[in-house]
Each structure stands twice: as C-alpha cells, then as structure tokens.
Amino acid sequence: MAAFDIGDPKSVVSPGGVGFDINCGVRLLRTNLWEKDVLPVQERLAQSMFDHIPVGVGSKGIIPMNARDLEEALEMGMDWSLREGYIWAEDKEHCEEYGRMLNADPSKVSMRAKKRGLPQLGTLGAGNHYAEIQIVDEIYDKWAASKMGIEDVGQVCVMIHSGSRGFGHQVATDALVQMEKAMKRDNIETNDRQLACARINSKEGQDYLKSMAAAANFAWVNRSSMTFLCRQAFAKQFNTTPDDLDMHVIYDVSHNIAKTEEHMVDGKQKTLLVHRKVSEPSHPGFQPAPSLPISTNPSGLSTHRGQPVLIGGTMGAPASYVLTGDGKKGMQEDVLVDMSGQLTTRTAASTSVTMSETGAFKVPIAAAIRKIMGLWQFNTN
C-alpha cells in the first residue's frame, strides 16, 4: 500500500502500485443451504458451475455484449448490470464504492483494451482466480458473522476471485508506456521500470486514473455477471430460485486499486491517493469511508466492527477468512489479503506460508470458510 498527498504537486500515481489486474477482488455470496444439502449432488453442481462460468486463458463470456454495451458498462459499472437485469438492487449496497467509480472515462481507454475486454465479460480467467463453493468451518465472532448472514458452521457460501481480465492488463500496459515518457519529461526516477509513474495532476496521471476507474468498473461488472451465472447454476440444480436460496452478496471488495480517501496524517486530515495492491482497507465503523456501503449501517455492523475484509484462500491455504475492521476510532490498517501465492512463489507459498505470517490477523476474524473439496475449485492454473 502506498499513499500520496493529492495537495502536493510532486505526488505521483503509479500503475505498478495497483497492478496489471485492476480491481482484482473477492466477492462472497451466502446461501441458506447446508453441507448435507450439497454433498449428495456435488458432482452435478460442480458441473453446472463449469457449464455456466467460462474459465481459462482466452475464455469468452456468454453475457451478450456489443461495443456500445461495453462503453456503457465501463462508465456505469454495476449500474449497467442492474439496468440489464443481471444483479439484484441490493447487490450494490454490499459492494465497495457501490460497484461504480464515478471518475471512469471510457474515452481514455485504448481500442486494443476494449477489443480484449469485449468477449471476456462474465469469465473467470486463469492463474489464481477461482469460483469456489465453500462451507463455514468456524465462527469466531458470532455477532459480526450473523450480521453478514453467516449463521452457523456448515452453511454453504460461494466465493468468486477475479478481476478485469485482459482489459485491465492492457489499460495498465498502455499507461506504463505513457508514464515512461512523462518521467523523462519531469525528471522522475524509479528503481524499477514497472513502477513508472506520473504526477497525479499531469495529463498522463489523470488519464490513467480515469482509465483505471473504467477497468475497475469492468471488473465489478465481470464479478456481477459471474454472480448471475452462479445463481442460475444453483437454481437449476436445486429446482428453485436464487431468491429462495437466499443467494445474497455478503460483500465485494477490491485488492488492486487506487482511490482518493481522507486520512489523518500526523494529526492532520489529508486527501490522499491510496494505492492498494493485494491489500484491502479495514476501515473502522466510526471512520467516514466513501468505500463503505451504507447497507452495513442498518445492520449495525459498521457501527461497532467496521468494513468487511475478505481473505480468499487457495493454492493450498487451509481456508478463506471473513474479517471486519476492529471499530477503534481513528484507527485504520490495510490487510494483506491475496493468499494465492503473492507473498513468494506460488509453489513456496502453498507449502511454507501460514496465515500467521501474513499479518492478516491485525483485525478481528468473523469466520473461517473452507472449500468442500478440490473438485469445487474452478482454478485453471
């Protein structure tokens, strides 16, 4: 995580501080099903998920989209998904930034990026991305978990970990080329080419932030599309409706993004451009946070606990974890969240990195959720 004072004319924005997979993030859905309900049909349900959600490098989505639709989705984010009938209205209320960054400007995105993104909406991708059917394994904070709809051990949940696919990668690649030129012009030096940057208020800096926001919106639409497909897969298997299965979004949060936020620095409130790469905010409930949906306030969660944090466990990690901000006034920590091989090589991480080594327990854990079996991890790495 890196933050820069927007009021300082020398402050910079760096695509490398966000990553190539812009708005790679995690979404957690709950259900009213229990382990005993799904074990008898696990193979059929797994196949249904495979049939509905395209996976792998170069996979193409089944959500109908033309060039005009893409332009609107890049600008509108989850508002586009809602308009097209792919999400429930309350899904937005459980998503960081309500699933839409308002500064998105599709005109700042290259045609190559749009060409790469057009066929990929509603696809999982490859690498460490997955759609996983999980079982609540342990509840550490019964009150906080219940506020999120996690009721008891054995409850079935679905976790989706994906981002902006080739679209976001191209946006980052295009920006790095422009920022290398800006660095020469403005005499900026870095020790790593992938940390190329530009002054926040420069044309290159502003163009990147607007195109990055469009990529973030693409990722939210992508996860929303997979949520729709996931709900359809469950409904088909259990011969009922997603609503009857209580397939509500618990939370959706990005761990690769840059956003403008207000924070206390040396006793003074400052407006910062916060870069997060494989980390999530854990805003306490008492701290105003634009990224914290108001839906957590009626439930009482943010008042006492704070922003939900989702740690997706894969690549050999024993479980995924749901955490919340600790609710201490004036305190905010970022949490390293991507347990998918980002701390070291993926092979080493799967055998040597433990949860206690990641610093993930700096905020309270609400619940641990384990995958049922490897078959259910739609990972194409």
From TrEMBL:
Catalytic activity: a 3'-end 2',3'-cyclophospho-ribonucleotide-RNA + a 5'-end dephospho-ribonucleoside-RNA + GTP + H2O = a ribonucleotidyl-ribonucleotide-RNA + GMP + diphosphate + H(+); a 3'-end 3'-phospho-ribonucleotide-RNA + a 5'-end dephospho-ribonucleoside-RNA + GTP = a ribonucleotidyl-ribonucleotide-RNA + GMP + diphosphate
One protein family per Pfam: RtcB
Cofactor: Mn(2+)
Cofactor note: Binds 2 manganese ions per subunit.
Keywords carried by this UniProt record: GTP-binding, Ligase, Manganese, Metal-binding, Nucleotide-binding, tRNA processing
GO CC entries: nucleus; tRNA-splicing ligase complex
Residue ranges of the region described as Disordered: 281-301
GO molecular function: GTP binding; metal ion binding; RNA ligase (ATP) activity; RNA ligase (GTP) activity
GO terms (BP aspect): tRNA processing
Lineage top rank: taxon: Eukaryota
Residues reported to bind Mn(2+) 1: 21, 129
Keyword Ribosomal protein: no
EC number: 6.5.1.8
Amino-acid positions noted as binding GMP in the UniProt annotation, renumbered to this chain: 128-132, 255-256, 312-315, 320
Matching InterPro entries: RtcB, RtcB-like_sf
Positions contributing to Mn(2+) 2 binding: 161, 255
Family label: Belongs to the RtcB family.
Protein's name according to its UniProt entry: 3'-phosphate/5'-hydroxy nucleic acid ligase
Species of the source: Diaphorina citri (Asian citrus psyllid)
Gene: LOC103520176
